[in-house]
Amino acid sequence: METKIRKNNENIKIGICLSLLGGFLDSYSYILKGNVFANAQTGNVVLIFIALANREFNKSVKYLIPVVTFAVGIFISELLKTKKNLRSHIRLKIILILEAVLIACIAFFGKNYSNHAVNCVISLIAAVQVANFDRIDNSPIATTMITGNLKSGMIQLSQYIHTKNRDCLYSFIKYIIVICNFGIGVIIGCVSIRLYSEYSILMCELFLVLTYITIEEDKTGLP
Q1: What are the TM regions of this chain, as residue ranges (predicted)?
Q2: Phi/psi zone of residue 164: left (φ > 0), alpha (ψ -120 to 50 degrees), beta?
C-alpha cells in the first residue's frame, strides 16, 4: 500500500510539472510567436480549411505543417512504446531529454527562424509530451491542453455526486490541479517573457528537470 501511495503521489507531481510547462509553452507561442496556440492543432485545422475555401493554397500548406509535425511526434512516440526492450522509465527520460534539447534550440536559435518554424517545434514538443505522459493514476490526462481534462473532471464530479464514490472525487481534484497548474504556467510564462523575452523559455528546463528527478526516484515502480 505504501508503494502504491508513493507512486500515485509522484504521478501527480509529474502532472503538475508538465502542465506548468504546457501552459508556459502556450503563453510563449501566443505572446512571442504570432498570437497562436501551438500546443493543440484544432485551430490549425480550421485555418487549413478556411484557406482552402478562399483558394489560398499556400496558406493551407503553411497551417498544415504544424499539424503534420504534431502527428509525427505522436507516431514516433507510439513506435517507442512498442519497443519491448525499452523500459518505460528509460523511454520517458529520453522524451524529457528530447524536449529539453528542443527548448534550448528555441531559446538560442529561435530568433534566426520564422515564428512558424518555431511553432512547429513547439508542436512537436507538445506531441511527444502528450503521447508519453498521458495518464495519472490510471486516469487519462493531457498536460499540454485542458479541454479533455475539463470534460473528464466534470464527468468524475458528476459520478461522485451520483455514487458518492470517493475515488471519483479524488480524480476530479487531480484534474482540477492539472488545469490550475496549466494556468499558473501561463502566468509564469507571461512574467518570464517580460523579463527575459526569447530566453524565458529556458524556464521550462526547470520543469523538465523536476520531472526527470521524479521519474528517476520512482523508476522501480515503472515497468
Answers
A1: 63-80, 92-110, 172-193
A2: left
* Number of other residues whose CB lies within 10 A of the CB of residue 20: 27
Identify the residue whose cell numbers are 493514476: 137
Task: Count Cβ atoms within 10 A of the Cβ of residue 90 and give its class: 0-12 exposed, 13-18 middle, 19 or more buried.
Answer: middle
Q: What is the 3-state secondary structure (H, E, C) of the chain?
A: CHHHHHHHHHHHHHHHHHHHHHHHHHHHHHHHCCCCCCCCCHHHHHHHHHHHHCCCHHHHHHHHHHHHHHHHHHHHHHHHHCCCCCCHHHHHHHHHHHHHHHHHHHHHHHHHCCHHHHHHHHHHHHHHHHHHCCEECCEECCCCCCHHHHHHHHHHHHHHHHHCCHHHHHHHHHHHHHHHHHHHHHHHHHHHHHHHHHHHHHHHHHHHHHHHHHHHHCHHHCC
Give the pLDDT confidence score for residue 1 in this predicted structure.
43
Closest by CA to 24, choosing from 144, 107, 106, 111, is 144
Q: Which residues pair with 139 in a beta bridge?
A: 136
Q: pLDDT tens digits, residue range 14-60?
A: 999 999 999 999 999 999 998 888 888 988 899 999 999 999 998 89
Place of cell 504521478: 11
The phi and psi torsions of 87 (rounded to 5 degrees) equal -65, 155
- How far is residue 169's CA from residue 161's CA, in Å, rounded to a whole number? 9
Q: How far is CA 129 from the centre of its chain?
A: 5
